[in-house]
Amino acid sequence: MGILKGMRVVEGSAFVAVPLAGLTLAQMGAEVIRFDRIGGGLDAGRWPLAPSGRSLFWAGLNKGKKSVAVDMKTNEGRELITRIITAPGEDAGLFITNLRVRGWMDHVTLSQHRSDLIQVTLMGDRHGNPQVDYTVNPALGIPDMTGPEGHEAPVAHALPAWDVAAGGHVVNALLAAERHRLRHGVGQDVELSLKDIAAATIGHLGLIGEAALSGKARTKSGNALFGAYGQDFLCSDGRRVMVIGLTDRQWKNLVKATDSADLMTRLAADTGQDLRDEGVRFELRARITATLAPWFAQRPLSEVSRALEATGVTWAPFRTVPQALAEDPDLSEDNPLFTDMIQPGLGRFPVPGAPVTFSEFSRETPTAAPELGAHTEEVLSTVAGLCDTEIQQLFDKGIVENSRRVTRSAA
Amino acid sequence: MGILKGMRVVEGSAFVAVPLAGLTLAQMGAEVIRFDRIGGGLDAGRWPLAPSGRSLFWAGLNKGKKSVAVDMKTNEGRELITRIITAPGEDAGLFITNLRVRGWMDHVTLSQHRSDLIQVTLMGDRHGNPQVDYTVNPALGIPDMTGPEGHEAPVAHALPAWDVAAGGHVVNALLAAERHRLRHGVGQDVELSLKDIAAATIGHLGLIGEAALSGKARTKSGNALFGAYGQDFLCSDGRRVMVIGLTDRQWKNLVKATDSADLMTRLAADTGQDLRDEGVRFELRARITATLAPWFAQRPLSEVSRALEATGVTWAPFRTVPQALAEDPDLSEDNPLFTDMIQPGLGRFPVPGAPVTFSEFSRETPTAAPELGAHTEEVLSTVAGLCDTEIQQLFDKGIVENSRRVTRSAA
C-alpha cells in the first residue's frame, strides 16, 4: 500500500547503485521485478556473507522484489526479458539497469516493443567504460584528503558512497521521466554515470572551485570537521566521542558543557583571533582541542554523555556496528524503521524498511528478499502473458529457472 | 527547458542535504526559491572559501536558484514566507526544509493556507534532534572500519556521504508525493532523518546482518576492495593506482595485464585455494598483492596505464583534486557535464550541471548561484502577489533585503 503502488519497474542490475534504486522504489510500494541470469548475477555471492554462506549483501539490496532467472544467452531468453520490460500497463514500461548490454537491451531496440518505454541506464563513466566506487573515488581526489593528519597515503572510504548517491539519482531520474510521460505520453532514454555523479557532487560541494582557485590540494585533517570546529575526543574509559561546534549555537553549547568559557577567552586573547568566526575555529582547532581534551579525558562516556545532553551539544559516540546494535535504540525495533525478522537462509536481525514516511500512508513492514528466480513462473504468466504450456516448455528447455539458493560454495 | 520545467519548489535550508536536493531539482528545470534570513543562513560562510572570502560551498549548492532574504523574527516576515510557500499554482505548493521550525513553519499550520501542500522535512534524527554527517557516521560504525589495516583509531570519511544520500531521498520523496498529488489531489507531510537514512543504508548493504550474525566488527582493510580483490599499488614514479578484480572478467584481465597467470597458479597450488572464488581472493589479498606489487613498482604510471587499458582492466590512478583537474578530461569542458564559467565574486572554474541526461531534453548549461536576496523583489511580486507599494514598505522596514554579498569578513 505504498505511495508508488501500481507502478511496475523492471531491474536488470548488479552490485549497489541500481539494486538500491530498485529497493527504494519497492519499499515505496512499486512492483519491482529484478531479472538475473540462471545461477545468479555478478553480485549473487557478494560479501558480506551469512554463516550459511549466503550473501547478506544480496538479501539486503533485493528485499521485497520479484526475482526472475533467465538464460539471456538464448534468443528465447532475450525475448522473454524484452516482453517483461515492455509489457503493457499505464504505470509499467519502466526499466532501470547498469548492465549496458548493447543491441537487444538498448532503449532504441526495446522501445520498438513499447514506444513510451522509460529506460534509465547507469554506466561506470560517460564513455560507457566500467568504473566502480573503488576507482571513481581515488580518481577524483577524495582519498587524498581522508585520514589522519600527516598520514601520507590516500585512504579510501569504506562506504560505497558514490554508489549510494547514484542510486538516489536513478530513482530521481525515473520519477522525473515518468512524471513527464504522465503529462505528455512520451518515454525516453535516460543516462547517467557513476563518475559523473561523483564529479558533479564534488563540484557542487565547492571542491573543484577550491582546487582551481587555490591550486592546492586540501590537506588531511583527521576526524576534524572541515571549515569550523568539530573533533573527536577520548574519554577516561577509552570510549571516543565526536562533538560539533559548527554553528554559533553548537559552539556555545560545547563551550558551556565543557565549562571552558574562560579558557576560550584566553585562547582568543593569546591569538588575537575571534572564535565566533567558524573559519577561525577550524584554523585554531589544534589549540581548541588541546584545551578541551582534559575535560573529556577525566570523564567516562556516561558522564560525558550526560553533560553534553544536558547542554544540547550536537555529538555522538564512536561505535563499531555490533556496539551500535547493542547500544543504539535507533537500530532496534524501538525505531519503526526496523523490524526484527528472519531472513530465510540467513538468520534473524533488524531489517530496515523505507527511511521516508508519508503522512497519507502508513509505514510498511519490510519484506525479505526472494530466492533467486522465485517469481519466474508468476511473472511469465501475469506480466509476459504466457500460457502454462509455454511456461512449462521454457522450464523444460532450461531457459528459465525457479528458486535457487546461491551460497558461497555454489558460486 | 528541463524536464521539471513549470514546477516551483520553495527551499528553507542550510548545509548540504536539502540545498543539494533543491539544486538537483533546479538543474532538472524546476524553479527553486531558497529563502534565508537577512545576512544569510547558517551556511552562508561555509568553507571552502574563494580567495575573495566568499563561500564556494554556498555558491556550489545554490546554483540556478532564486534567493529571497527575509527577517523571519517578525510576523510580517513569517507571513511573507508562508505566502511564498503556499502560493497558488498547479505545480507549486512544494516545500523542502531541514530547518524544522515548530509552529508557523509546520505542515499543519502551512497547509491551512494551501490544503494540498507537500512538505518534505529532513531532521537530524527521528526524534527531531540535530545530527550532522560528522556525528551520524561514527555512531553507526563506518569510521571504525575505515583506514589502514592495524590503525587503531576510527577514520571519518571526508565526503559528507550521508548528506549526499539524504539529498537524493528528499528529491525522491518530493517527486513521489507530487506524483500522488497529481493523481489524487492531496498533499502531505513527508519526514525523514539523516540518521535513519544512514541506518537504513547500512542495513541494506548487509552491515547490520553481518554484525548481528557474526557478533564481530568488520576489521579495517585499508584500500582493499572488501570481499573480492581490489588494491592500490605504487608505480615506479611514485604515482599510485587502484586496480579491481571484483568480477571474474576483471580478475582475469588484471592477471593478464600483469602477466601473472603462472604466479597465480602457483599461489593457488601453495594455498590449496581456488582464486576464482571472489571471497578467496579477498582472504588471500595480502599474498596476491605481494605477488603483483613488483610489476607495478617496475613501471611508471604511463606504462602501467597503457598495459591496463590494453587489457581492459577496471582501474584508476589516485589523484589530488588539483591533479584531477589538470589530468582528467572528465573534469573539463571535454565532458558536457562541465562548463568553464565565472562565478561572480568567486572566480573562473569548471562548473557542473545535472549529471543525468534525458533524451527528450537537451543538456542545460549550469547557472551561477544568486547573490543572497537577489530575487526578493521579483518573488514578492510574482509569487507572493504583492504590489509595488507593499514591497517598498517591506524594504523600508528592513523586513526583506535585496542582494547582499556574504564574505568571510562580514560573517
Summed up:
The structure is a homodimer of 411-residue chains. Chain A is α/β, with parallel strands linked by helices and 411 residues long.
Notes on the structure:
The structure is a homodimer of 411-residue chains. With 411 residues, the first copy, chain A, is an alpha/beta fold. The first copy, chain A, has two domains: 8-202 and 334-410, Crotonobetainyl-coa:carnitine coa-transferase, domain 1 (Rossmann fold, 3-Layer(aba) Sandwich); 240-317, no CATH class. Chain A is built from 16 helices and 13 strands. Chain A has helices at 17-27, 56-61, 75-85, 107-110, 133-139, 161-184, 194-204, 207-214, 248-257, 261-271, 278-283, 285-297, 301-310, 321-327, 376-382, 388-397; strands at 8-12, 31-36, 66-70, 94-97, 118-123, 188-193, 229-234, 240-245, 315-317, 338-343, 347-352, 356-358, 400-401. In chain A, the strands form three sheets. A seven-stranded mixed beta sheet of chain A has the order 6-5-4-1-2-3-13, sandwiched between helices. A three-stranded antiparallel beta sheet of chain A has the order 7-8-9. In chain A, helix 6 (161-184) crosses helix 7. Chain A is elongated and about 85 Å long. The relative contact order of chain A is 0.14. The mean pLDDT of chain A is 96. The interface between A and B is large, with 154 and 154 residues.
